[in-house]
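Q: What would this complex look like in 3D?
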Amino acid sequence: MEEKKVMLSGIQPSGDLHLGNYLGAIKNWGARAEEFECFYFMADMHTITVRQNPADLRRRTLEQLAQYIACGLDPEKNTLFIQSHVSAHAQLGWVLNCYTMFGELSRMTQFKDKSAKHKDNINGGLFTYPSLMAADILLYQPDFVPVGEDQKQHVELTRNIVQRFNGIYGDVFKMPQPYIPKAGARIMGLTAPEAKMSKSVPEGCVFLMEKPEDIARKFKRAVTDSDTERCVHFDPERKPGVSNLMNIYCAVTGKDRQAVEAEFSGQGYGAFKTAVGDAVVETLRPIREEAARILADKAYLEKVYTEGAQKASYVANKTLRKVYKKIGFVAR
Ligand code: TRP
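A: Here is my prediction, written as C-alpha coordinates for the whole assembly.
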Protein backbone atom coordinates (compact mmCIF):
# COMPACT_ATOMS: atom_id res chain seq x y z
CA MET A 1 0.00 0.00 0.00
CA GLU A 2 1.17 3.50 -0.77
CA GLU A 3 2.15 5.51 2.30
CA LYS A 4 -0.12 8.36 3.31
CA LYS A 5 1.16 11.88 2.76
CA VAL A 6 2.04 13.72 5.96
CA MET A 7 0.55 16.98 7.16
CA LEU A 8 1.61 19.04 10.17
CA SER A 9 0.62 22.30 11.77
CA GLY A 10 0.68 24.13 15.07
CA ILE A 11 -1.07 26.99 16.80
CA GLN A 12 0.39 29.03 19.63
CA PRO A 13 -1.64 28.77 22.83
CA SER A 14 -1.12 32.47 23.44
CA GLY A 15 -4.78 33.39 23.12
CA ASP A 16 -8.20 31.81 22.94
CA LEU A 17 -9.15 30.12 19.67
CA HIS A 18 -11.62 32.05 17.54
CA LEU A 19 -13.90 31.63 14.56
CA GLY A 20 -11.09 32.57 12.16
CA ASN A 21 -8.88 29.76 13.52
CA TYR A 22 -11.79 27.35 13.28
CA LEU A 23 -13.13 28.14 9.79
CA GLY A 24 -9.73 28.98 8.30
CA ALA A 25 -7.80 26.08 9.76
CA ILE A 26 -8.97 23.58 12.36
CA LYS A 27 -12.28 22.67 10.71
CA ASN A 28 -10.46 21.64 7.55
CA TRP A 29 -7.77 19.76 9.45
CA GLY A 30 -10.40 17.47 10.97
CA ALA A 31 -11.51 16.34 7.54
CA ARG A 32 -8.02 15.35 6.43
CA ALA A 33 -7.31 12.43 8.73
CA GLU A 34 -8.48 9.76 6.28
CA GLU A 35 -6.28 11.03 3.50
CA PHE A 36 -3.20 12.18 5.43
CA GLU A 37 -1.08 11.21 8.39
CA CYS A 38 -1.67 14.29 10.54
CA PHE A 39 0.34 15.91 13.35
CA TYR A 40 -1.05 18.93 15.20
CA PHE A 41 0.56 20.53 18.19
CA MET A 42 0.24 23.31 20.74
CA ALA A 43 3.28 25.51 20.06
CA ASP A 44 3.90 26.43 23.71
CA MET A 45 7.65 26.91 23.17
CA HIS A 46 6.94 29.63 20.64
CA THR A 47 4.68 31.57 23.00
CA ILE A 48 7.48 32.43 25.42
CA THR A 49 9.19 34.66 22.85
CA VAL A 50 6.69 37.12 24.31
CA ARG A 51 6.30 37.19 28.11
CA GLN A 52 3.48 34.90 29.29
CA ASN A 53 1.69 34.50 32.58
CA PRO A 54 2.60 30.89 33.59
CA ALA A 55 -0.82 29.92 34.94
CA ASP A 56 -2.55 31.31 31.86
CA LEU A 57 -0.16 29.52 29.50
CA ARG A 58 -0.77 26.18 31.22
CA ARG A 59 -4.55 26.66 31.24
CA ARG A 60 -4.69 27.80 27.60
CA THR A 61 -2.55 24.92 26.40
CA LEU A 62 -4.99 22.38 27.86
CA GLU A 63 -8.00 24.40 26.72
CA GLN A 64 -6.61 24.46 23.24
CA LEU A 65 -6.16 20.72 23.22
CA ALA A 66 -9.76 20.23 24.43
CA GLN A 67 -10.97 22.62 21.74
CA TYR A 68 -9.00 20.88 18.97
CA ILE A 69 -10.70 17.63 19.91
CA ALA A 70 -14.12 19.29 20.17
CA CYS A 71 -13.58 20.79 16.70
CA GLY A 72 -13.34 17.30 15.28
CA LEU A 73 -9.66 16.37 15.54
CA ASP A 74 -10.02 12.79 16.68
CA PRO A 75 -6.97 11.82 18.79
CA GLU A 76 -7.30 8.25 17.52
CA LYS A 77 -6.77 9.43 13.95
CA ASN A 78 -4.47 12.44 14.46
CA THR A 79 -1.36 12.84 16.55
CA LEU A 80 -2.11 15.70 18.97
CA PHE A 81 0.68 16.82 21.23
CA ILE A 82 2.28 19.60 23.23
CA GLN A 83 5.49 20.91 21.63
CA SER A 84 7.53 21.10 24.87
CA HIS A 85 6.80 17.40 25.55
CA VAL A 86 8.88 16.37 22.55
CA SER A 87 12.43 17.42 23.32
CA ALA A 88 13.59 16.85 19.74
CA HIS A 89 12.03 20.24 18.84
CA ALA A 90 14.51 22.11 21.03
CA GLN A 91 17.34 19.83 19.93
CA LEU A 92 16.82 20.18 16.19
CA GLY A 93 15.98 23.85 16.72
CA TRP A 94 19.52 24.42 17.97
CA VAL A 95 21.05 22.58 15.04
CA LEU A 96 18.99 24.52 12.51
CA ASN A 97 19.97 27.80 14.15
CA CYS A 98 23.42 27.03 12.84
CA TYR A 99 22.07 26.62 9.31
CA THR A 100 19.94 29.77 9.30
CA MET A 101 21.51 33.06 8.35
CA PHE A 102 21.32 36.25 10.39
CA GLY A 103 20.23 38.09 7.25
CA GLU A 104 17.39 35.65 6.61
CA LEU A 105 16.08 36.01 10.15
CA SER A 106 16.36 39.79 9.94
CA ARG A 107 14.02 39.84 6.96
CA MET A 108 11.13 38.07 8.71
CA THR A 109 8.14 40.39 8.88
CA GLN A 110 6.82 38.74 12.04
CA PHE A 111 10.11 39.54 13.80
CA LYS A 112 9.95 43.15 12.65
CA ASP A 113 6.31 43.48 13.76
CA LYS A 114 6.76 41.80 17.12
CA SER A 115 9.97 43.61 18.00
CA ALA A 116 8.24 46.91 17.20
CA LYS A 117 5.35 45.89 19.45
CA HIS A 118 7.45 44.59 22.38
CA LYS A 119 10.36 47.05 22.39
CA ASP A 120 11.30 46.18 25.97
CA ASN A 121 11.74 42.47 25.23
CA ILE A 122 13.44 41.93 21.88
CA ASN A 123 15.00 38.64 22.92
CA GLY A 124 17.06 36.08 21.02
CA GLY A 125 14.16 33.65 20.88
CA LEU A 126 11.99 36.16 19.06
CA PHE A 127 14.73 36.45 16.47
CA THR A 128 15.47 32.73 16.03
CA TYR A 129 11.83 31.62 16.26
CA PRO A 130 11.76 30.68 12.54
CA SER A 131 14.52 28.10 12.95
CA LEU A 132 12.55 26.47 15.79
CA MET A 133 9.53 26.49 13.51
CA ALA A 134 11.63 24.87 10.78
CA ALA A 135 12.58 22.17 13.29
CA ASP A 136 8.89 21.70 14.24
CA ILE A 137 8.16 21.03 10.62
CA LEU A 138 11.17 19.05 9.44
CA LEU A 139 11.18 16.55 12.32
CA TYR A 140 8.01 14.99 10.87
CA GLN A 141 9.04 15.09 7.17
CA PRO A 142 5.65 16.48 6.15
CA ASP A 143 4.50 16.96 2.57
CA PHE A 144 2.18 19.82 3.49
CA VAL A 145 2.11 22.49 6.17
CA PRO A 146 -1.29 24.21 6.40
CA VAL A 147 -0.65 27.77 7.56
CA GLY A 148 -2.19 31.20 7.24
CA GLU A 149 -0.81 33.78 4.83
CA ASP A 150 1.16 35.39 7.70
CA GLN A 151 3.20 32.19 8.24
CA LYS A 152 4.06 31.59 4.61
CA GLN A 153 7.36 33.44 4.91
CA HIS A 154 8.44 31.07 7.70
CA VAL A 155 7.65 28.04 5.56
CA GLU A 156 9.63 29.59 2.71
CA LEU A 157 12.58 30.02 5.06
CA THR A 158 12.18 26.37 6.10
CA ARG A 159 12.44 25.43 2.44
CA ASN A 160 15.67 27.42 2.13
CA ILE A 161 17.06 25.60 5.15
CA VAL A 162 16.16 22.24 3.57
CA GLN A 163 17.95 23.20 0.39
CA ARG A 164 21.04 24.35 2.27
CA PHE A 165 21.17 21.35 4.62
CA ASN A 166 20.41 18.71 1.99
CA GLY A 167 22.91 20.41 -0.30
CA ILE A 168 25.64 19.63 2.22
CA TYR A 169 24.52 16.29 3.65
CA GLY A 170 22.32 14.65 1.01
CA ASP A 171 18.60 13.92 1.24
CA VAL A 172 17.97 14.32 4.95
CA PHE A 173 14.80 16.43 4.97
CA LYS A 174 11.76 16.21 2.76
CA MET A 175 10.89 19.51 1.06
CA PRO A 176 7.63 20.75 2.66
CA GLN A 177 4.96 22.73 0.82
CA PRO A 178 2.94 25.50 2.45
CA TYR A 179 -0.75 24.76 2.17
CA ILE A 180 -2.66 28.02 2.19
CA PRO A 181 -6.45 27.79 2.47
CA LYS A 182 -8.49 29.37 -0.31
CA ALA A 183 -9.47 33.02 0.05
CA GLY A 184 -12.99 31.98 1.05
CA ALA A 185 -11.73 30.57 4.31
CA ARG A 186 -9.89 33.75 5.28
CA ILE A 187 -12.08 35.29 7.97
CA MET A 188 -11.75 39.01 8.62
CA GLY A 189 -12.57 40.98 11.77
CA LEU A 190 -16.20 42.02 12.30
CA THR A 191 -15.39 45.61 13.23
CA ALA A 192 -12.55 46.21 10.76
CA PRO A 193 -13.02 43.80 7.83
CA GLU A 194 -9.81 44.96 6.16
CA ALA A 195 -7.77 42.93 8.67
CA LYS A 196 -7.82 39.26 9.58
CA MET A 197 -9.98 38.33 12.59
CA SER A 198 -7.64 38.56 15.55
CA LYS A 199 -7.81 38.20 19.30
CA SER A 200 -6.07 41.57 19.58
CA VAL A 201 -9.30 43.23 18.40
CA PRO A 202 -11.74 41.45 20.72
CA GLU A 203 -14.87 43.40 19.67
CA GLY A 204 -14.45 42.09 16.14
CA CYS A 205 -13.44 38.59 17.15
CA VAL A 206 -15.75 35.69 17.96
CA PHE A 207 -14.15 33.22 20.36
CA LEU A 208 -15.07 29.54 20.22
CA MET A 209 -15.99 29.45 23.90
CA GLU A 210 -17.96 32.67 23.91
CA LYS A 211 -21.55 32.82 25.24
CA PRO A 212 -24.28 32.76 22.54
CA GLU A 213 -25.65 36.16 23.55
CA ASP A 214 -22.20 37.74 23.22
CA ILE A 215 -21.70 36.17 19.80
CA ALA A 216 -25.12 37.39 18.63
CA ARG A 217 -24.31 40.89 19.88
CA LYS A 218 -20.99 41.00 18.04
CA PHE A 219 -22.70 40.08 14.78
CA LYS A 220 -25.42 42.68 15.30
CA ARG A 221 -22.66 45.27 15.65
CA ALA A 222 -20.62 43.99 12.72
CA VAL A 223 -19.53 46.67 10.27
CA THR A 224 -21.37 46.46 6.97
CA ASP A 225 -20.78 48.89 4.19
CA SER A 226 -21.66 52.47 3.52
CA ASP A 227 -22.54 52.00 -0.14
CA THR A 228 -26.05 53.03 -1.13
CA GLU A 229 -27.05 49.66 -2.55
CA ARG A 230 -27.70 48.10 0.87
CA CYS A 231 -28.04 44.66 -0.60
CA VAL A 232 -26.35 41.39 0.31
CA HIS A 233 -23.93 40.95 -2.54
CA PHE A 234 -20.41 39.52 -2.70
CA ASP A 235 -17.80 42.13 -3.59
CA PRO A 236 -14.72 42.09 -1.33
CA GLU A 237 -13.32 45.30 -2.87
CA ARG A 238 -16.35 47.51 -2.45
CA LYS A 239 -18.18 45.62 0.29
CA PRO A 240 -15.57 44.01 2.55
CA GLY A 241 -17.86 43.82 5.59
CA VAL A 242 -20.79 42.18 3.84
CA SER A 243 -18.50 39.88 1.85
CA ASN A 244 -16.82 38.70 5.04
CA LEU A 245 -20.20 37.99 6.65
CA MET A 246 -21.18 36.08 3.51
CA ASN A 247 -17.99 34.02 3.72
CA ILE A 248 -18.76 33.19 7.34
CA TYR A 249 -22.39 32.35 6.56
CA CYS A 250 -21.41 30.14 3.61
CA ALA A 251 -18.77 28.37 5.69
CA VAL A 252 -21.10 27.55 8.58
CA THR A 253 -24.21 26.69 6.54
CA GLY A 254 -22.56 25.08 3.50
CA LYS A 255 -24.63 27.31 1.19
CA ASP A 256 -23.05 28.98 -1.83
CA ARG A 257 -22.93 32.72 -2.49
CA GLN A 258 -25.71 32.79 -5.07
CA ALA A 259 -28.04 31.02 -2.66
CA VAL A 260 -27.20 33.51 0.07
CA GLU A 261 -27.73 36.52 -2.19
CA ALA A 262 -31.10 35.08 -3.19
CA GLU A 263 -32.05 34.29 0.42
CA PHE A 264 -31.58 37.91 1.53
CA SER A 265 -32.58 39.77 -1.60
CA GLY A 266 -34.79 42.71 -0.78
CA GLN A 267 -33.89 42.53 2.93
CA GLY A 268 -31.72 44.99 4.82
CA TYR A 269 -28.39 44.24 6.43
CA GLY A 270 -30.02 43.89 9.87
CA ALA A 271 -31.84 40.65 9.05
CA PHE A 272 -28.74 39.29 7.37
CA LYS A 273 -26.47 40.03 10.33
CA THR A 274 -28.93 38.39 12.73
CA ALA A 275 -29.07 35.29 10.54
CA VAL A 276 -25.28 35.04 10.35
CA GLY A 277 -25.02 35.45 14.14
CA ASP A 278 -27.64 32.75 14.74
CA ALA A 279 -25.96 30.34 12.34
CA VAL A 280 -22.58 30.86 14.03
CA VAL A 281 -24.12 30.39 17.49
CA GLU A 282 -25.60 27.05 16.39
CA THR A 283 -22.32 25.93 14.82
CA LEU A 284 -20.29 26.76 17.91
CA ARG A 285 -22.77 25.48 20.51
CA PRO A 286 -21.86 21.76 20.27
CA ILE A 287 -18.15 22.62 20.06
CA ARG A 288 -18.34 24.74 23.20
CA GLU A 289 -20.27 22.11 25.12
CA GLU A 290 -17.99 19.29 24.02
CA ALA A 291 -14.82 21.29 24.81
CA ALA A 292 -16.12 22.06 28.31
CA ARG A 293 -16.91 18.40 28.88
CA ILE A 294 -13.45 17.28 27.69
CA LEU A 295 -11.68 19.95 29.72
CA ALA A 296 -13.38 18.69 32.87
CA ASP A 297 -12.06 15.19 32.19
CA LYS A 298 -8.44 15.70 33.19
CA ALA A 299 -7.56 12.00 33.03
CA TYR A 300 -8.69 11.79 29.43
CA LEU A 301 -6.78 14.92 28.40
CA GLU A 302 -3.66 13.60 30.06
CA LYS A 303 -4.00 10.32 28.21
CA VAL A 304 -4.36 12.15 24.88
CA TYR A 305 -1.30 14.35 25.30
CA THR A 306 0.82 11.56 26.77
CA GLU A 307 0.07 9.20 23.89
CA GLY A 308 0.44 12.05 21.41
CA ALA A 309 3.90 12.93 22.75
CA GLN A 310 4.91 9.27 22.55
CA LYS A 311 3.88 8.91 18.92
CA ALA A 312 5.38 12.27 17.97
CA SER A 313 8.68 11.54 19.79
CA TYR A 314 9.07 8.28 17.96
CA VAL A 315 8.91 9.98 14.56
CA ALA A 316 10.84 13.08 15.63
CA ASN A 317 13.70 11.18 17.23
CA LYS A 318 14.21 9.15 14.09
CA THR A 319 14.82 12.35 12.13
CA LEU A 320 16.97 13.82 14.90
CA ARG A 321 19.22 10.75 15.03
CA LYS A 322 19.73 10.96 11.29
CA VAL A 323 20.65 14.65 11.53
CA TYR A 324 23.05 14.12 14.44
CA LYS A 325 24.80 11.37 12.52
CA LYS A 326 25.09 13.45 9.36
CA ILE A 327 26.59 16.46 11.11
CA GLY A 328 29.13 14.38 13.00
CA PHE A 329 27.82 13.96 16.55
CA VAL A 330 28.93 10.72 18.22
CA ALA A 331 26.03 8.28 18.57
CA ARG A 332 25.01 7.49 22.13
N1 TRP B 1 4.33 30.12 13.93
C1 TRP B 1 2.99 29.63 13.92
C2 TRP B 1 2.04 30.78 14.30
O1 TRP B 1 2.45 31.70 14.96
C3 TRP B 1 2.80 28.47 14.84
C4 TRP B 1 3.73 27.38 14.49
C5 TRP B 1 4.85 27.02 15.20
C6 TRP B 1 3.64 26.51 13.38
N2 TRP B 1 5.46 25.99 14.61
C7 TRP B 1 4.77 25.63 13.49
C8 TRP B 1 2.75 26.38 12.32
C9 TRP B 1 5.01 24.65 12.53
C10 TRP B 1 3.00 25.40 11.37
C11 TRP B 1 4.12 24.54 11.47
O2 TRP B 1 0.88 30.72 13.97
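A: To summarize the key features: The mean pLDDT is 94. Residues 8-12, 43, 46, 133, 136-137, 145, 147, 151 surround tryptophan (CB under 6 Å).
Q: Very helpful, thank you.
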